[in-house]
């Protein structure tokens, strides 16, 4: 066992000092500018840092990663929808759940690896490693330090799921696809590292290697592996500094993540979930062996360490080109991007707001330019993009609407879509809790667990009263009230008639399908509702398959039905609502999805008076979401009706 000189660091609560922690290392190596903007003082680089401060850094970073995962992209339209607003209040509401992830990872590591484990449940035993180099002190704490008869296991806990890794699949042409990972006794190993595993039976070796390369992209799939590789670097350099590196041959490195295959069986003790293995033997936490990958990473980490030291000593504050390291539009991105480095990007109609344009534009020399490269080269606004780069019909429409202050409407397609609606229309919206750990029977990590719905029932076109035709269900506690929710839905929604209507209907349909699977008693009725889904976005944006089935050619079917410059390249509810309605959210107590999650998550921390206020505020907010759909749908009907006089099918008007 390592001598507990590390505990001295824990006891030294020098809150006004710092060292280079793993989180510092990740941030300071983003770009030459970060360290200068942070105003790091050189005389603080050899200081101590308490375990409390260290964990606060780690926790904030990991919780931001949680929020990054709460985005859905519609496969048909490419529209990206935030399931929650990404702000700190939700991170705070998730704190207790993240701590459960760490504790469960520690508990399950004992079962998986045997021996002795030291982890967050007993912070005084938390292992710490540090070394000094070139006048700078580096320090890291280990989430789980496991010692068994085979050696030392360093385990880094991440509040993400195994899905992103298990989905790393390949195969032979036109054949079955296989994951590059093999799970054995709850540990996932790269198949190419397993003795006598015939990998070529499943996939070409070159395709396997291409998948492995993705683990070395620190800003995408490899970000957690890079994190672990930094930890390995710190550990190995402590041993090298004490001339005891021979012991390192028995060290192994793992990521501990939530098991995407785990389904909670509903066992509780003292009103708290007990995460036993599920009926298929899955544990809540599973482990990925990253020992060889992190070994290969060391040369890259060392190069980054050299950059870090150079950045710290020069403290160059001048602007530098933007890139992947900025974390544009990611909660875990650089904190200086929005207020400083990316401030020059227009909030509306920037060059980045051309729709579905991840591939960018082709320049005259045949090269491709996209994303933040556009900003680096001075193409800030939508109108800055040269005309001859604009070859896609959607982009041409966006450009024309902005340049000539016009609105694009394909009234024929909108009318054709409206004619598909069957009455009554059930305007439905769920509020959900995206919890890292499952709370109720049948749930799994990060399921969007519904705790509220609002329903507006439109009996005939335009016939719907905001109050009389509205039904809201809102859970009163953190107990499982899902069956009561289902009963109320089915009381007012006839599965044999009408249309299930929502903005981003795959989200609502997904929740209904999940409930159908968890409550077999209501399966058939819920799945009938599921099959009746229709998306508001199909009327405003498009659904190419739907409109091709109606007889439209492919080009027109793929082109959106409506565009106004105020949309600024997005059909999110926040952008569409102000175009079609005067409804406002800024005068509500609960203003957005984040507020809804936070207030629900904080039920048990509220006084009776506050609970009553926030409970009603949640009802008001969710009710407004469905009423907004009623208003937008009416506006579309009136838009088509008002424009029918000129006899044109596609209209550009001021």
Compile the SSE list and pairings:
Elements: H1 6-11, H2 22-28, H3 34-38, H4 51-68, E1 71-73, E2 80-82, H5 88-93, H6 95-113, E3 116-118, E4 128-133, E5 136-141, E6 144-148, E7 151-161, H7 163-166, E8 169-170, E9 178-179, E10 181-184, E11 187-190, H8 205-213, H9 223-241, E12 251-258, E13 268-269, E14 272-273, E15 285-289, H10 291-314, H11 337-341, E16 361-362, E17 368-369, H12 372-376, H13 393-403, E18 407-410, H14 411-418, E19 425-434, E20 448-458, E21 470-474, H15 482-492, E22 499-502, H16 505-518, H17 523-531, E23 533-535, H18 536-540, H19 544-549, H20 554-558, E24 562-563, H21 573-580, H22 593-601, H23 608-643, E25 650-653
Parallel strand pairs: 7-12, 11-15, 19-22, 22-23
Antiparallel strand pairs: 1-2, 3-6, 4-5, 6-7, 8-9, 10-11, 12-15, 13-14, 16-17, 18-24, 18-25, 19-20, 20-21
Short description:
This protein is an alpha+beta fold. The chain contains 23 helices and 25 strands.
Verbal overview:
With 654 residues, this protein is α+β, with helices and mostly antiparallel strands. It is built from 23 helices and 25 strands. The protein has a 7-stranded mixed β-sheet with strand order 3-6-7-12-15-11-10. It has a 5-stranded mixed β-sheet with strand order 21-20-19-22-23, sandwiched between helices. Helix 9 crosses helix 10, helix 14 crosses helix 23 and helix 16 (505-518) runs antiparallel to helix 17 (523-531). The longest helix has 36 residues, at 608-643. It is globular, with a radius of gyration of 27 Å. The N and C termini lie far apart (75 Å).
